[in-house]
Design goal:
The protein is of the alpha/beta class. The chain has a single domain, classed as Ribonuclease H-like superfamily/Ribonuclease H (Nucleotidyltransferase, domain 5, 2-Layer Sandwich), CATH 3.30.420. Helices cover 46% and strands 22% of the residues. The chain contains five helices and five strands, in the order E-E-E-H-E-H-E-H-H-H. It has a five-stranded mixed beta sheet. Helix 1 runs parallel beside helix 2. It is globular, with a radius of gyration of 15 Å.
């Protein structure tokens, strides 16, 4: 069994989802949305680092999967997202945990079957895949979807007798 932490980074809300691989799928261990406080971006980045560190220390996952930055319309938002992502990654690097990154399209493809799926579709599919009683909040669902995406990818490599170390998106 492998414990995977998925992160949906954000400078105001960072979603996290921890799943455990099981023989026939996944089990949700914990998930939520970390509400980031701070008046300045550096304060919020420090808060992200601390909050993700607390999750890592509490659950001690084997692997860490995070959504990659994409730029849609606003370059400033993409830069802030990249910095939030960096703060979360540093907390995993600090604990010597393997880090993997996935694009939003890869995550949606793995969970919904379409790379351009809408958030409500991701929430519904995460609910079904993890046998949850209700749809998770959007950031929480995205983080759980990221963990599921990584679980699918690494499981496929293991079944072929390959190491997950061969995954091109591995950061560490």
């Amino acid at each position: 069994m492998t414990l995977i932490l998925g992160i949906d980074p954000g400078s105001r809300i960072t979603g996290y989802g921890i799943i455990e691989t099981e023989k026939n799928g996944y089990r949700r261990v914990d998930s939520g949305a970390l509400r980031i406080k701070g008046d300045t971006l550096p304060q919020r980045l420090h808060a992200i680092f601390r909050a993700v560190s607390e999750v890592l220390d509490r659950f001690q996952p084997d692997e860490f999967a995070i959504e990659n930055v994409f730029m849609h319309r606003n370059a400033d938002s993409a830069l802030k997202l990249g910095q939030a992502r960096g703060a979360a990654i540093c907390s995993a690097i600090d604990r010597d945990i393997s880090i993997y990154e996935y694009t939003p399209a890869e995550i949606k493809q793995a969970v919904v079957g379409r790379g351009n799926a809408a958030k409500p579709q991701v929430q519904m599919m995460v609910r079904g895949l993890l046998n949850l009683s209700q749809n998770p909040q959007a950031d929480e669902a995205d983080a759980l979807a990221c963990a599921i995406c990584h679980g699918n990818r690494s499981s496929g490599l293991r079944k072929m007798g390959l190491s997950t170390e061969l995954r091109g998106a591995r950061l560490r």
